Amino acid sequence: IAPTPRDQVADGGTLRFPIAQSTTNFNINQADVTGYDANVVSPMLPGPFDFSADATPSVDKDYFSDIVLTSTKPQVVTYTINPKAKWNNGNPISYKDFVAQWKALNGSNPDYQVLSTTGYDQIKSISRGANNQIVTVTFAKTYADWKALFSGLYPASVNATPDAFNNSLKEGIKVTAGPFKFDNVNKTTKTVTIVRDDKWWGEPAKLDRIVFPDIVDTAQIDALA
Prior knowledge:
Elements: E1 14-16, H1 37-41, E2 49-51, E3 57-59, E4 64-72, E5 75-81, H2 95-105, E6 123-128, E7 134-139, H3 156-159, H4 162-167, E8 180-186, E9 191-196, E10 209-213, H5 220-224
Parallel strand pairs: 1-10
Antiparallel strand pairs: 2-3, 4-5, 5-7, 6-7, 8-9, 9-10
């Protein structure tokens, strides 16, 4: 796959990344999502960990200064959010976003049409630490795969009500926090386009944009040719 150092990769350009089914919901935690929607959304949202080629996790320092398992009995994880990390509407990423996502996904309210409650239903409480950017997550019982949680964190407004959770992101996603932001959905050409976000505080994205065309698997080779 010819891995290349970042400083040898040219700036700009467009990547066309085919998905085999049109995006139905930009909330990847909602039950109606397709198996491809995470590819579209992940460049626009926070996640706690990066993964190396051999699947070893490391804290994503763009979003978190530190993430520590601070207790095992009970299991407690403390997330320290990077003070530079903000949603592109200017609001800081905070413990409130964690609380809202947990309450939406823990299965306690059936009006939230969730894809899965796994892991979130094991959380006993989420509280504010010394400031709004320190998050303490306490589990009711030990949950081994805790590093998978909050990957694809949304602003609290998306999870505030069942209607917002189920319906507010069907046509696009306005509030994001990543190297890319939402640009448009073209229903005629069946494409989604995301573009570089100048409000991103980390290293700027190399690409100008990523276009996700809806092309079924069997047609992708001919489309590439």
